[in-house]
Write a structure and sequence with these properties.
heterodimer; A: 96 residues; B: 779 residues; alpha+beta; four-stranded antiparallel β-sheet; 16 helices; cytoplasm (chain A)
Chain lengths: 96, 779
């Protein structure tokens, strides 16, 4: 347990990481370093995108499944680790 | 051809229209045509108001000029266009005024038809019967009129003529008249009249006359006769019967029917390939009593199996309860699945801790961490892996002062360090045999003082900020080696002589096996460990991989793992007696000199070299433990490292605390080359796995890379470390051209060798040449 907390703390401390969010399947944040409104917004939007991505992968091959999703934008990169029970989101901006 | 009445003012309008058309058209003929057309259009309708019309008519009549317009050309001749139609003076013209109030439609039509009649009379030849009948009607109507006022008629005739003249009159006049008329007309009521179209002839076979002299004449005559006969016979003939039919139209009846309103229900099902696959696969699990209450994972199972399966599966009461709750939802959609999952979750308490502690979460966390670090370290890792380093287009990067010097240098990439390792001395480093990205680093003090607990960290290249595995050891770690057969086994040698084998796959802190129970365990620090693959074992010898260790208690031992580690002495490092020429062992005082290092020959695993604290290097045989095969004496201090060249089978290198590195050939008693730079003890050396002439050395405060092609006197690259920090270990990478340097502060720095001349081949010949030349120069 402490290990998990340590890892989460380390992740947040890395260079360029803006925020990290862990939510359960309902969308209730378990751990978040961003404010509530931003968290809710990210979760809502990324949840839908993840569903769509997973649907796409599995439509092509039902035995396949989505393991990781990275969205690179001009300003930062959003990394999503989806799962049935939780959703982990980390937003990182490019390092200089 | 029914003719309907036309309003009185119509003609005025028509006139106006015609005057317009007068302008447009060129020929008089056309004028008439257009007139007739316009008139025909207005042939509609039924009613008209007599009074008003007459008034209008009077006006119009008043308005129509009673004099003809005269046009004169330059010569004064009257060139006024004459009317096309000159009415026959004998023909009675119907009057406008008189006729109208008394009369009905027919007269009007005659008036209106007048121009058309005019038209037709001029073209009498074309439509013979047509005109004739028409004429007939006109004449009939005319006769119906009367002789009442011929004088009036003649007057009107004049008017008529004027009218007719006016048809061909000059435009200007008409315009004015027309303007005024229009004003009045605007206020009045306009009726629209519907007219019947002209008769459409469907069949018009004109009579054909055939001359009597022609050939067909007979046939025609006969036919004619036959026809007349037929006509004659027709009257009384039974062949022809007049018959008429009439169908009765049933009396219609309305009937009303009422029915229940049809309720419409929208139903939607999402059908995707994976949804179908899921339902299909989970179908087999349905019969296996899946507990529905678990997190809704199998919630889709009863859902997809749908109502038909409900009765098939004898489920417990709790399951049936959940089934009931599910049966109300629509089957098959994942959105529904989500909802159901949520519904079920609400029933149980959401356990955040469970999620945080689940394995999947930890895994994902690890992946996420690596991904983040990959982003951060991407250029460094790319340089490490010899991939082209691509600039990140989105981030603003300061132009790094890249060293473009042509001379070779070490480029600092990154350093493995974390809070745990700070302050510890790196004592040994080794790569995993199977996974070239995995590095095991042992931390432990090499001196007898300041002994702390040891630490073994397994670092992954993908995460330079935190080791993947951390093993705490009781005493300082002095030696490490990964097994080649079982790549997950890591042998650790410690300062107190213990040897432990860890399994790095699990994160357990306890080793698989420990040598502390063994009676013959080492009593002094284990300075080197090696897993040796003994394929070519002699009969009776063990085959497979064996762990060999050398320790400061002067023994080289072989460890075998049965139930516990068992130790067999391979060699005891006795001090050779130098007094006599042929090394005679002094049996009385058997002092064992501490062994510091050893290296097995790459080709022949029977032969190995051992370096001792005395400065001797002994060549020994695996199978013969009594005597050395050979002893190489050159060093004046403890030999810290001895390594065979990976390319040249006869050449080996040794380093010692007497500031020297010696290059030997195994058949020569004296070293071939001696390398010195600085006056510091050399702790570690290693041959480069890529180039036969390159090796690296680590001494106090300096990291040196030697390239024998360039110079054998000076190192090619010298990298000075920060003051106070001593590099203690050196490791080349087998895949890329990088070198790792461990120092006394717990950092393992990764450097990239830059601008080191790459000969292409392994330069074995070069090395041999160098050796040859050196030898020849010595003699």
């Amino acid at each position: 347990m402490a290990e998990v907390e340590d890892t989460l703390k380390r992740i947040q401390g890395y260079n360029g990481v803006i925020g990290s969010i862990v939510v359960n399947a309902e969308g209730i944040p378990i751990r978040t370093t961003l404010d509530n409104s931003t968290t809710v917004q990210y979760v809502g939007l990324l949840h839908q995108l993840t569903m769509k991505a997973r649907s796409t992968i599995r439509d092509i091959d039902p035995q396949n499944d989505l393991t990781f999703l990275r969205i690179r934008s001009k300003k930062h990169e959003i990394m999503v680790a989806p799962d049935k029970e939780f959703l982990m989101i980390v937003i990182q901006s490019p390092t200089e | 051809m029914s003719n309907t009445t036309v309003k009185q003012k119509r003609p005025a309008l028509k006139v106006a229209k015609s005057s317009k058309t007068l302008n447009v058209s060129s020929g008089v003929f056309r004028v008439n045509k257009s007139i007739s057309k316009t008139i025909n259009h207005s042939f509609s309708g039924k009613s008209f108001s007599s009074g008003g019309d007459s008034r209008v008519l009077d006006k119009s009549s008043a308005q129509t000029p009673k004099h003809t317009v005269q046009v004169f050309d330059e010569h004064g001749q009257d060139v006024a266009p004459r009317p096309l139609y000159n009415p026959d003076p004998g023909v009675l013209q119907p009057k406008q005024g008189k006729i109208f109030p008394a009369q009905d439609t027919s007269s009007w039509t005659t008036m209106t038809d007048f121009p058309s009649v005019a038209f037709q009379t001029t073209n009498a030849s074309n439509t013979g019967p047509f005109t004739r009948s028409f004429f007939g009607s006109i004449s009939a109507s005319r006769t119906s009129q009367t002789l009442e006022s011929v004088t009036d008629e003649t007057k009107d005739l004049l008017v008529k003529q004027d009218l007719s003249n006016s048809l061909s009159d000059v435009q200007a006049r008409r315009e004015e008249v027309q303007e005024q008329v229009r004003e009045d007309v605007l206020d009045s009521v306009v009726d629209c009249y519907l007219t019947e179209t002209e008769t459409i002839w469907l069949l018009d076979i004109p009579t054909v006359s055939v001359s009597e002299d022609s050939e067909d004449a007979e046939a025609v005559k006969e036919r004619n006769n036959a026809y007349t006969e037929l006509c004659k016979n027709r009257l009384g003939n039974d062949k022809y019967v007049e018959r008429s039919m009439q169908t009765f139209n049933g009396a219609p009846k309305t009937k009303e029917v009422q029915c229940d309103s049809i309720t419409m229900v929208d139903k939607a099902v999402m059908s995707t390939i994976w949804d179908m696959y899921d339902s299909f696969c989970n179908k087999s699990d349905v019969s296996g009593n899946t507990v529905v209450s678990d997190q809704g994972n199998k919630a889709d199972v009863p859902d997809s199996s749908s109502m038909s399966k409900l009765d098939l599966n004898p489920k417990g009461p709790e399951q049936s309860k959940s089934m009931v709750s599910i049966s109300s939802t629509v089957s098959g959609s994942s959105a529904q699945l989500e909802k159901m999952a949520c519904v079920l979750l609400v029933e149980e308490e959401p356990d955040h801790e469970l999620i945080l502690q689940s394995d999947k979460f930890k895994q994902d966390l690890a992946v996420m961490e690596r991904v983040i670090l990959a982003n951060i370290f991407q250029p460094k890792l790319a340089a490490y892996r010899q991939l082209p380093v691509i600039e990140d287009p989105d981030c603003v990067r300061m132009a790094m002062g890249s060293k473009n010097s042509p001379s070779p240098f070490l480029e600092h990439l990154w350093a493995f360090e974390c809070g745990l390792t700070m302050g510890r001395n790196v004592s040994s480093m080794t790569w995993n045999k199977k996974n070239p990205d995995l590095l095991a680093v042992g931390y432990g003090q090499l001196d007898f003082k300041d002994q702390k607990s040891g630490l073994v960290c397994c670092w992954s290249l993908k995460n330079p900020t935190w080791p993947d595995r951390i093993f705490h050891c009781e005493s300082g770690v002095t030696a490490l080696d990964f097994s080649a057969c079982n790549a997950n086994q890591l042998a650790v040698g410690m300062y107190d002589g213990t040897i432990a084998i860890y399994n790095v796959q699990a994160a357990e802190q306890t080793p698989i096996i420990d040598s502390s129970d063994c009676s013959k365990m080492h009593t002094c620090p284990v300075w080197q460990l090696r897993w040796i693959d003994h394929e070519s074992g002699l009969a009776g010898e063990d085959k497979g991989e064996i762990l060999i260790s050398v320790s400061a208690d002067g023994r080289i031992c072989k460890w075998v793992h049965y139930k516990c580690l068992e130790c067999v002495d391979l060699m005891t490092l006795k001090t050779p007696d130098l007094a006599t020429n042929h090394m005679k062992w002094n049996r009385t005082i058997s002092a064992l000199s501490p062994g510091l290092c050893f290296d097995f020959h790459s080709n022949d695993s029977n032969i190995y070299l051992a370096g001792t604290e005395d400065g001797y290097i002994h060549k020994c045989s695996y199978s013969y433990k009594e005597e050395y095969l050979e002893t190489y004496i050159a060093h004046k201090g403890p030999v810290y490292k001895v390594t065979w060249s990976p390319f040249c089978p006869d050449v080996f290198l040794s380093c010692s605390s007497d500031w020297t590195i010696q290059l030997w050939r195994q058949d020569l008693q004296r070293p071939v080359l001696c390398f010195t730079s600085g006056q510091k003890a050399v702790f570690d050396i290693m041959w480069s796995p890529h180039c036969a002439t390159v090796f690296g050395s680590v001494s106090e405060g300096k990291v040196e890379i030697w390239d024998l092609r360039i110079s054998s006197l000076d190192p090619t690259i010298v990298s000075v470390t920060c003051p106070g920090v001593n590099p203690t270990g050196l490791l080349f990478t087998s895949e890329t051209d990088c070198v790792l340097v461990g120092d006394s502060e717990g950092k393992v720095t990764v450097y990239k060798l830059r601008n080191l001349t790459d000969g292409g081949s392994t330069q074995v010949e070069t090395l041999e040449d160098v050796i040859q030349s050196t030898l020849s120069s010595q003699h």
